[in-house]
Amino acid sequence: MNTIKYFNSACILIICMILMAALYYQFGLNEEPCPLCLLQRMGMIGVIFGLALNIYVGFDSKHFGVVIISALVGGFFSVRQVLLHIIPTDGNTGYGTPIFGMHLYTWGVFIFLASILGSAIFLFFNRKFKSEKTHVILNFEKYVVYLATFIVFVNVIATFFECQLGPCCENGPCK
Q1: Helix locations, the chain, DSSP H
Q2: Which residues are listed as membrane-spanning (predicted)?
Q3: What is d(CA 136, CA 11) in angstroms, rounded to the nearest whole number?
Q4: Which residues pair with 102 in a beta bridge?
Q5: Are 67 and 115 in contact (CB under 8 A)?
């Protein structure tokens, strides 16, 4: 059971690293995220929330449902953005700097698909992953969730400063 719990924490850490990379692009490289990028981040935060529920409450198919729905929503916005930039025009090769030849929103499609696939595998083998009656949260798991909470908080603050209280238009608040 601990192996599965560590795997859950590792998935949260992977998504945290992706969100930290997005924050680096935002603040380190001054690449403001577009509204679709912010919606993709919300999808990743939803995936983190479902995985964190597994850590704190115990494994349940409803928690994987949260992961799958969040990944579907985030994946929808990722695919939408990929389709917007699928045929590059002169001087416009996509939004943002590519990583290993693909843009962040393209990587988002793969991350969300992996989240759905991973959740489906857990649900397929659901009987093996039943929670114990005495649910113990390991310190490692607590630190992972604390890190994820901090990264979510930073994303919320960054989004607030970008969009303020109104709708978020292309690269900032609507005028």
Answers
A1: 2-23, 35-57, 61-84, 104-124, 139-163
A2: 7-27, 39-57, 64-84, 104-123, 143-161
A3: 19
A4: 99
A5: yes
User: Per the confidence metrics, is the pTM higher than 0.70?
Assistant: yes
Average pLDDT for 90-107: 77
Q: Which residue has the tokens 């990944």?
A: 71
The CATH number of 2-173 is which of 3.80.30.20, 2.130.10.10, 3.40.50.670, 1.20.1550.10? 1.20.1550.10
What would the two tokens of residue 69 be? 């729905």
Give the list of residues 6+ apart from residue 33 with CB closer than 8 angstroms, or none.
22, 25, 26, 41, 162
Q: What is the structure's pLDDT at 170?
A: 67
pLDDT, the chain, mean? 85
Quick one: pLDDT band at residue 148, thresholds 50, 70, 90? very high
- The DSSP output letter for 30 is -
Is 40 within 8 Å of 108 (Cβ atoms)?
Answer: yes
